[in-house]
Amino acid sequence: MSSQNHIERQEFNITVYTENQIGLLNRIAIIFSRRKINIESLNTSPSEIDGIHRFNIVINETEEVVRKICGQIEKQVEVLKAYYNTNEDVIWQEMALYKVPTEVIAEKALVERLLRENGARVVVIRKDYTVFETTGHREETDNLIKVLQPFGLIEFVRSARIAIIKASDGFNRKLREFEKREPHHEVVENEYLNSRDKVFTM
Amino acid sequence: MKQVNSHTTTQVAEPKKEVKTLSGAEALILSLLEEKVEHIFGYPGGAIMPVYDALFDYTDKVEHILVRHEQGGIHAAQGYARSSGRVGVVFATSGPGATNLITGLADALIDSTPLVCITGQVYAHLLGTDAFQEADVISITAPVTKWNYQVTNADEIPEVLAKAFYIAKSGRPGPVLIDITKNAQLQKFDFAGCNRCDHIRSYRPKPIVRKEYIEQAAELINKAEKPFVIWGQGVILGAAEQEFKTFLEKSGLPAAWTILGAGALPSDHYLNVGMLGMHGNYGPNVLTNECDVLIAIGMRFDDRVTGRLDKYAKQAKVIHLDIDPSEIDKNVKTTVPVWGDCKETIPLLTQLVEQKKHDAWLQKFKDYHQQEVDAVIQEELFPTSDGITMGEVIQLLNEITGGEAIVVTDVGQHQMVACRYAKLNHTRSNITSGGLGTMGFALPAAIGAKVGAPERTVVAVIGDGGFQMTLQEMGTIMQSNIDVKILILNNQFLGMVRQWQELFHDRRYSFVNIASPDYVQVAKGYSISGQKVSGRETLKSGLQEMIAHKGSYLLEVMVTKENNVFPMVPQGCSVSEIRLK
Question: If you average pLDDT over residues B501-516, what whole number do you get?
Fold first, then answer.
């Protein structure tokens, strides 16, 4: 890896609108893995339109590579659109959960204050532990790990990134135009997938 | 994510059809007939038996060609698609049947060949249980298909099949695989007929043509002093051969081809200046780095064509016409991108370009060609030494067929020689594994090519290495009585590897010396006539006998052992560093 490449690389947020189809995640993942590009974060969720999913993918790459990757993603039959944006172009958030011994919170006012300062909210309180949640950028959620570590942080988990593009009016309008022309069909569960009768296969 | 039991296609409204209760397998065959499928290449097995059972009732409408290996089946379907311009269809069973298709899928994807492969799969309730002959075909084939889908309900079949054909043949064509579980093949459902698919919400096969880019491209061409066209298979896939010829003749542009583009313009057309790439012609390679405007049509700047990218046509303004937007700026930065089907974009460009002749510039190509004739071609085609060269075999073949044959090549030295020297009067006459470089491709592909173009002579030119990879398909030739002329150029080496070992590995011939069986005897075992030629005195008569023979014929020609293919752009070099020796 040349140092110049290293400098040119930065975080890019790739937003992909797709149909809701089994196997598509695999197809999209292959586009990255065959080029030996590590996905830093990946989130898939339904979009505001039934049957259309939205992928948020974060990678560290040069713009040239990201542009080509988006072209390859858009080639997939079930992909409607792929955008790429720098961190400055998007509003993004990650959610983190922290599990801390309840006795520490109860006994040490300092911890309570630190949690408040970091915008943490209680999700669950049990006798043995309490779970807090924060939402924010990586450095913000990372910071709370450091803060809580000395007080016996039991477990930590962070979600993938979700991002909304600042500049555009999103893909909503286009999606709705699609929807008018091509109404989404009802989701039908496959009745055969879970019937595990013993059948001779040959 | 949940599976959506619908395919979001817009289907053409057709008169209401009678509803019949059919099995999924029967519906599959009817769907194939609806797509006007006449030939299927395949191999049965446990998980696709219901389909074969249904096929038994339709053998008067569709011909099934029983191959000897699924790889042979898919290469045959590729040859069929390439010679006929239609979609090739393949059947295979689950597990090993399906995994044997992988090489052909990868080959078809990189060479943009339209295929629909139907694989059987274990019962849906057994998916993921490591059942007998179960393989995760959808995951395995995802990287080597344009689209794939697993059917687990019979009622999905008509719609999925329509979608599969639409995807395979539209836009930039490619292979599609449909994996059908055995329960879906057996399941009865109310079949209400088939509807054609001509739209999918999330699929844009053709980009919208931007007229402003056509105008910019025409302006560049009109101002150019040394314009140069390089074309690829996109011209053939777009059925734009006539439009392409009209464009060239009006603008007077010299044009060179990639091996998959060969034949789109007749070999002896005055503006055809030869083959590009690693073993291409001298002039087109050198002058790529001298032209002022480079017009790339339906080609993808493969590394075998460009050599070193950082030294490729840096002086030129580049116009790139392609149907696949992701090809634009992928390898070579484009000055003017022209997205679209070249069937539409070339005529728009022709309207705007000026009638011109570039005689002085064209003469430069001819001058370089003369240098190449003197240094390489003359001795290759008309050797003065004792040994038979591959080039002289192809030259004699040209004389005998008059450039009317379909030439199917395998991969290696003979491929480069055949592509360089074969005379092609017609489009869809050059069938070769370009992007993947699949040894073993030619024999089965030639079978398919003959089925796809039964009126034409099909000659499979194959090296002794590649032939031994799929020679079992002589069984298919025997059983289906397919008239394929098999021309083995035997140099007793894996020739191209040996050439590289000679040039770049100090002649350390590591495992490239390959022994062959008595091919004529092997062919005889399959009821295929043939002969072996070892001397020049019987070469022409041997070739004549092969072409004149009624039915398939195998001709083995013993050629010079250590002959190299030149010119050559050594790997890692610029195209202008092409070596004549």
Answer: 96
